[in-house]
Amino acid sequence: MKTALLLALLILSDTLSDVSLAKGMKQIGALHTLHLRALLVLGSKMARNGAVLLGLLSMIAGFLTFLVVLSWADLSFIVPATSLHFVLATLGAKWILQEHISRVRWFGTILVGLGVALLSLP
Amino acid sequence: MKTAVVLLLALLAQAGGNVCLSTGMREMSAASQLGGPGIVSLLLRGLTNPTIWLGMGLLGVFFGLYAATLSWADLSVVLPATALGYVINVACGAYVLHEAVPPARWAGALLIGLGVCCVSWSERRTALPGKTPGDP
What we know:
The complex is a heterodimer.
Chain A: H1 2-28, H2 36-47, H3 50-70, H4 75-81, H5 84-95, H6 103-120
Helix pairs in contact in A: 1-3, 1-5, 4-6, 5-6
Chain B: H1 2-27, H2 36-46, H3 50-70, H4 75-81, H5 84-95, H6 103-127
């Protein structure tokens, strides 16, 4: 029960993190160069973008949860068990980020989800 | 190509970070009870462990590279591609941490590889007619 609750928290944190971070980075704009000045400007914009910060906070929340769960459960079980966030985040990409997701892409995503579920089997 | 290279670097950093964290947490005694003081004590002890710090640094590298990729590529492409990290994690669990990995998990790894190929192919099909969102 303890593991299930923390896994649910981990999945929700990961999903919110992915969708928020993607939204924020799209608002900021594509990175086209690796020059130090451009990277500093990018970092500054990220630090002032609400969606990026929400994504970062969610990632930290998920990270802390992950850290605690890892202390009693196997890495090769816990990491694959969070696979549900693939489906939730792809739905978020479609509905919130308005991404076009073709049938081939859905098929690939489902294969990935099945593969991760298979990885989770004890 | 740029997306694939940056994502591969991100996934390697993530896998290294996860292994360091797992190793670091096991260097300390496992948290047998999850009361509030238990969690706080566990996290505080984690902050004094150099392996944990190395793991967090590597995950920071992952975050930067992942965020950079999301600045030009679709989440619905990048996210399934990160599933390759699960394969790397299972391999690390098997060969670095010496955890038992049954054949079903390796079959799952194969499915993930096929799925990522499909997603990658769909991205190329989207990019071919006009603009190139994945590889500017």
